[in-house]
Structure formats: structure tokens, C-alpha cells
Write a structure and sequence with these properties.
five-stranded antiparallel β-sheet, four-stranded antiparallel β-sheet, minor pseudopilin epsh fold, elongated, alpha+beta, about 30% helix
């Protein structure tokens, strides 16, 4: 404790430090916020215009993977495995078409308690099946890609090999409805899978 009139040797040092500290002024903060708003206003439309095409690439990779998974499951399990597309709902799923639980085996339709391998997966926003491919976007009979235990695509119910390559068409559509880009996944009669 100091008596009246006595000087504390640290008091001046503390005051200098406190007065020497510097922060941002309100004006500087407002300038930074204004610059960030301008950058966001420029970047947002560019990002939004690129989203449909990015979603299309992602959806094409996902369907390509689903086709590979369907073929691999058929080979592994030794039974027919179906990749069923639902173009009106823009979705697809993979299931064992084995007639379990009162279903009909090898009909290309999920019925009874046939087990699903991949639950219903919806296409991302701005992506749909391309009706330029067979009117629905899918050139498979009944929209079902069925792989036999030998890894060869067959026609559901008949078990016959498909007569020609099968294609799934996808397209990216802008918010105004304009088609921006297209992709296809093709399965050859021998079971080869190609994405373009």
C-alpha cells in the first residue's frame, strides 16, 4: 500500500501498456463486412450455377457404383440380383429377386420380403433420368437391370441374356428447366460397365 503522494514504479508501465493496446475501429469492421458481402454476392451465383453439373457427376458415379455393386453381389451370392430404377420418382434400389416371403422370384419387382441390398436412393436435386434414353431414361425391360450369378445382364422373368447394351441416361437441369449436361452408364451384353 502506498501513502498519499508516493509514486508506484509500475503504475506508469501499466498505463502505457493499456493505452498502447490497439483494436479494430467500428469503421474498419464495417469495411471488412462490406468487402465480404461483395465477394459473397459475386460468388453465390457462380456456385449455384455449377451445382447442377456437380450433382450430375456425383449421381453418375453413384449409379456406376450401384451397377458394379449389383454385379458383385450376384457373383458373390450366386443368385440373380436386381438394380431397379424408378424414373418417375428419380430413384433406384438394389435387391435380391429371390421370391422370399411369398414374392415372385426373378420378376424384377420387389415383392414379398425380398431383401434389399441398397435401400431406395433418390437422385440429387437438379438431376433426373434423361427421357432421351428410351423415353424414361432407362433402357432396361421394366426398368430392372438384373445380373445373373455369372455377372451377365439378363432379362427378368425369362433369364435370357440381353440382346443389346443397356443404358441409363442422366441429365442436369437448371432451375429454369434448361438441360445443362448429360451422362450415361452403359452395361454391355457381356457385363462390362462404362460411364460417359
Amino acid at each position: 500500500m502506498l501513502w498519499p503522494g508516493a509514486k508506484n514504479k509500475y503504475a506508469g508501465l501499466y498505463m502505457k501498456k493499456k493505452n498502447g493496446m490497439r483494436g479494430f475501429t467500428l469503421f474498419e469492421i464495417m469495411i471488412v463486412i462490406a468487402v465480404m458481402a461483395i465477394v459473397a454476392a459475386i460468388a453465390t451465383p457462380l456456385l449455384l450455377s455449377a451445382l447442377p453439373e456437380m450433382n450430375l457427376k456425383s449421381a453418375a458415379r453413384d449409379i456406376y457404383s450401384a451397377v458394379n455393386e449389383t454385379k458383385a453381389e450376384a457373383l458373390k451370392r450366386g443368385v440373380n440380383v436386381t438394380l431397379l430404377f424408378n424414373p418417375p420418382a428419380n430413384s433406384y434400389l438394389i435387391f435380391l429377386d429371390n421370391g422370399a416371403g411369398g414374392g415372385t422370384a426373378n420378376d424384377g419387382i420387389v415383392n414379398g420380403t425380398e431383401p434389399t441390398i441398397l435401400t431406395t436412393t433418390a437422385l440429387p436435386r437438379w438431376v433426373s433420368f434423361d427421357p432421351a434414353v428410351s423415353g424414361t431414361g432407362v433402357s432396361y425391360a421394366n426398368n430392372a437391370l438384373v445380373f445373373s450369378p455369372q455377372g451377365i445382364p439378363i432379362i427378368a422373368a425369362t433369364g435370357l441374356s440381353v440382346p443389346a447394351p443397356l443404358t441409363v441416361g442422366l441429365r442436369a437441369v437448371s432451375s429454369s428447366g434448361a438441360v445443362l449436361e448429360k451422362r450415361t452408364i452403359t452395361v454391355s451384353v457381356a457385363g462390362g460397365i462404362n460411364m460417359q
